[in-house]
Amino acid sequence: MASLWNTSNPAMADASDPFQLPNIAKFKVALCQLSVTSDKNQNLDRAGISIKTAAEQGAKLLVLPEMWNCPYSSDYFAKFAEDFTNEDASPTLSMLSDAANSHGITIVGGSVPERDHGRLYNTCCIFGPDGKLKAKHRKIHLFAIDVPGEISFKESDFFLAGDQTTIVDTEVGRIGVGICHDLQFPELAALYRKKGVHIICYPGAFNVSTGELLWELVQRARAVDNQLFIATCSPSRDSTGSYTIWGHSTLVEPSGEIIATAGHEETIVIAEIDYSKIQLQR
Ligand SMILES: NC(=O)CC(=O)C(=O)O
What we know:
Elements: H1 10-13, E1 26-33, H2 40-56, E2 59-63, H3 77-80, H4 91-103, E3 106-108, E4 112-116, E5 119-127, E6 133-138, E7 144-147, E8 151-154, E9 166-170, E10 173-177, H5 186-194, E11 199-203, H6 208-226, E12 229-233, E13 250-252, E14 258-261, E15 267-274, H7 276-281
Parallel strand pairs: 1-2, 2-3, 10-11, 11-12
Antiparallel strand pairs: 1-15, 3-5, 4-5, 5-6, 7-8, 9-10, 12-13, 13-14
Bound molecules: the ligand NC(=O)CC(=O)C(=O)O.
Organism: Malus baccata
Protein name: CN hydrolase domain-containing protein
GO molecular function, one term: omega-amidase activity
């Protein structure tokens, strides 16, 4: 009978560890937990101020929330959506590119509604410190919830799902990207680990029911399963709409321990990442 540890098994051979420490192994990350309003310009201004504040505090990597330029509500997705074909014509991409360039930081730009040939996607854009768009991740696993009398919401009523994983090599390490519900799928994180990712960034907007039950649990699980860093960034809570957001943007280290976390109010979490902890843990 073949041994479970037979390394001639292609699946096992593929499990070799491509981990390498990047040039900058220690740096500060900022999770900008933003309050989101129904005024897009105000949301852009607020995000710009938050990015500047985080950069002034020494952050080299910055993560924004899921749906930070637009309320997480079916009433707004289509109205707020932007076409990303021409970056200069997109107020959101222009702001992120300018901010990354003027502060010299890597930005995982949360997510915003993207319009492409009449279809909508829930999309995250990643910018390098030169202001260049490095990658675009479209949320793969669209969220649906139906708790009678409490909450009912189905993203696939508005968005198409993305079909690509996203790994970006940056000055602050190899970053894997997922958006919110993508966090609940261990296969995606395992695939990123296999490809040598140091940190997975998940802009996310869990609601209060799934948040209380699962938000911290799944982040710690993804971190400890794969022995890498997990960063999440949520909008702050707004209880006026039908979807009440959990908040609690968090950084988890490869041991599964939480390094830093927020409450549900608008804030910036700044914390230090030390990638040598990945080697130590493994
Ligand atoms: N926005 C989401 O994808 C929410 C989600 O995944 C959840 O569990 O809540």
